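Record minuted for completeness.

…
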Amino acid sequence: MTVIVDDAGSGDLLFGVVIGAYRQESGYFKYDVIDVRFYQEIFKEKEYLQESSRIVSKLVAAFNPEPAEEIHICQGCIFDVAAENLRKIYGEDRVKRVHVEGEAQRLIELAYLDEIRNLGYEPLTERDEKRGKNFFHMMRWLKDNPKMLQYAKTGWPKLKNYQVFQKFHTSAQPESIQIYKVVCVDCGSDCEVPFQPKADKPVYCKKCLKQHRPNKTSKRHKKTKNRRKQ
């Protein structure tokens, strides 16, 4: 017997990612979803890899694999962490990276299509053959249904090129400034500064800092007086 693990939707703009497990001998099929939030604000952290591993481990455990049963897991990078963790649990020889096709692929794809239909979106019939057309079809649907942007993978860097997604990309906005709490060396009061203090340089609160700054007005007066003398 063999448990086969595959995904659907990882390259699609809408929804999260469906991960399914299928045992070909019995026809038993089960799936779960990596929530779309893993492909939004926290996408850069790649936490979806850990979430993928968690879901895969749970799905495979639900099949209660026989001692000699192999586990075939898709070669996609979304399963890199999952495959390593499965090998630790079930052994190197039992976990194999494969190209998934056939009934397992069909069922997992159908599960994803059901999920995006639940959003009110009707997928293209030729979506597998025309991935580019599929992307723009989903994007046009989101433009017509802006409230559904919450179900889009808005964390993808390439989306910053499209106006409908630009508000989700903070790269065009100033980065947040880190604040450090320190003690003023003059008055001893607690204060905050927007830079990391160094041990060899004194740090002052705003009030005390004014006393240590040169008086620009007096300098200008001195320069004016010197010019008059000349």
Remarks:
- DSSP finds six helices and seven strands in the chain.
- Residues 171-175, 216-225 have pLDDT under 50 and may be disordered.
